[in-house]
């Protein structure tokens, strides 16, 4: 019985790293991403019922106490038949028995960068930093061009060097942060 034709063929590669195809396939579905997030945030192994209940609540924009049997069952069935087997085939989760005691494997760490919450991604809006440097540079050179003291005391080369150095350091931090 093939549970996930999208993930299975590429997941059984000879390397320990996930292929791009497997990563994209796994991350292409919101329920699989939700499972990975829930397991990542949990201190203890989880069961399929707990995962289904939380995901159903999120999907229906309600609390776990207010979801209906049908809402819970719909998520439970898709997790059982499709999503958990796909995650297991990719080597990202393991279960003690029949979808109980589900935990992440070390291989799941490869997906950490893609599972960050949108809030944490927007904490460092790099375009804002670059816009800020451009604005400061423009303001400094405009003031120096008008001859306002003390900005008129430095050459254009000094400003260019200072701004280039600041931009270079910011780009280095940005590159390190992205990795």
Automatic annotation (TrEMBL):
The protein's matches in InterPro entries, at most eight in alphabetical order, are given as: DUF7344 (IPR055768), WH-like_DNA-bd_sf (IPR036388), WH_DNA-bd_sf (IPR036390)
Question: Which Pfam families does this chain map to?
Answer: DUF7344 (PF24035)
* Keyword list, A-Z: Membrane, Transmembrane, Transmembrane helix
List each copy of the DUF7344 domain by range.
24-96
Q: Which Gene3D superfamilies match?
A: Winged helix-like DNA-binding domain superfamily/Winged helix DNA-binding domain (1.10.10.10)
Q: What is the top-level taxon of the source organism?
A: Archaea
Transmembrane segment boundaries: 129-151, 157-176
Supply the name of the protein. Answer: DUF7344 domain-containing protein
Give the originating organism: Halogranum rubrum
Its lineage reads:
Archaea, Methanobacteriati, Methanobacteriota, Stenosarchaea group, Halobacteria
């Amino acid at each position: 019985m093939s549970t996930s034709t999208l993930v299975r063929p590429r997941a059984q590669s000879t390397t320990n790293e996930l292929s791009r195809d497997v990563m994209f396939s796994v991350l292409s579905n919101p329920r699989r991403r939700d499972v990975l997030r829930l397991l990542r945030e949990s201190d203890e192994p989880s069961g399929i019922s707990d995962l289904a209940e939380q995901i159903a609540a999120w999907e229906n924009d309600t609390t776990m106490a207010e979801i209906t049997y049908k809402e819970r069952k719909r998520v439970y069935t898709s997790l059982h038949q499709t999503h958990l087997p796909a995650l297991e085939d990719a080597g990202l989760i393991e279960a003690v028995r029949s979808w109980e005691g589900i935990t992440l494997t070390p291989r799941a760490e490869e997906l950490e960068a893609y599972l960050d919450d949108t809030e944490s991604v927007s904490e460092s809006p790099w375009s804002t930093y670059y816009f800020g440097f451009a604005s400061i540079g423009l303001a400094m050179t405009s003031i120096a061009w008008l001859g306002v003291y003390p900005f008129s005391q430095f050459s254009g080369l000094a400003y260019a060097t200072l701004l280039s150095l600041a931009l270079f350091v910011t780009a280095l931090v940005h590159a390190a942060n992205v990795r």
